[in-house]
Amino acid sequence: MPAPWVRGRPTRSRLHPPRAAAGKTDGRRDRPGKGAAVHVTSDVAVVGAGAAGLSLALRLARPPAGARRVTAVLLAAPPGPFRAPERTWCYWEAGTGPYDGALTASWQRLRVRSGDGRTVDAAITPLHYKMLRSPAFEELAGEVIADSPHMTAVPALVERVESAPGNVLVHARRADGGRVTVRARWVFDSRPPVRLPPARTTLLQHFRGWFVRTRRPVFDPATVEFMDFRTPQPAHGLSFGYVLPTTPREALVEYTEFSRRTLGSEAYDHALRHYIGRVLDAGDHEVTACEQGVIPMTDADFPRQTAARVFRIGAAAGATRPSTGYTFSAVQRQTDAVAAALHAGRHPLPPRAHSARSRLMDAVLLHALDHGRVDGPAFFTRLFTHVPAHRLLRFLDGRTSLPEDLSIGLHVPVAAMLGSALALPFTPRGNSPTA
Fold first, then answer.
1. Fewer CB within 10 Å, N side or C side of the chain?
2. Domain residues for 144?
3. Does residue 132 carry a pLDDT above 60?
């Protein structure tokens, strides 16, 4: 599923190397010499070049007309073991969007299949379900940043963030060993926390995906296989297939589980071979690339501020929707609000990505799934059968009204959900599982 914290395989950075950094730089130069120290002063430092870091960087690199001038530095880990692997983000929006030029594909039909093969085909008009690959997003961001007088990207691994009177010092290291120090008024850190905050319930959405090319036409390029429950179901949690077709012979095919623990490598491969070979009956095919990831689905309360001038953004600040694992759309809303605050000279505390009502509903669902109160495949199949798909997607994005939420609630197992709702206040928060 989309928007993971860890996903795919290592990739070369598409971000352009720095010119001179935005703001004041000691010893300005187009490219620092090998091992040379670089000192930068800037209004903002953005740490990490994943979905959240790049989204905020793009907004700061392209300020609206009349906005307050803000200089910023994007600190992205250089190629190597600390560089984020290639990822695929999926999200939905109406009509055209700012990243359409970088999309791999988009669709207006989704399909859900129950375990016994019953099919629910749904048009999502006016929404489009969009597939964005991280290399294309990095390329887009790199081009915008290279042309911006307000922003620069510095390939360096951040090692320490240190509060100082009136500002923050960010200490980083380039691939050649040279030190980079950024003095910024505000720091926005998108890196995953070392450990998750305490939670009442945490499930892991873990998956492996293969980019496959088949000998014969197998896929319907007009429709996403959103949830295909014709997979062997685990003893705890649920599993499904997920197919993003780009041509009749090419697709990203994933095996996904919601459970407390991840699987071994061979187990994922076995599940994918079974799904592609026996369920999809794809026949001869080749695997051209692989993605793998783990998304915590948790009712933990993620802190959005860790020091007076240091904030978290993205999944690290709770942008992941706990019941689904989707993150990208919430990241856009959050980073848009942060950039607007900076350009207006306001305090830039990132807003909560999801409403209190959405977080409560997700906490109840996670508790019910984790305690076996609801049958996951039956639950999601029923929702897509009885709720218009475009409304359900808006619900999953936290954009429905209270009356709409109540109408959707008519199609969930009320007794089971009520039992979990009553149990939540008495469920202690504890340490979350790790991948």
1. C
2. 6-85+134-195+301-344
3. yes
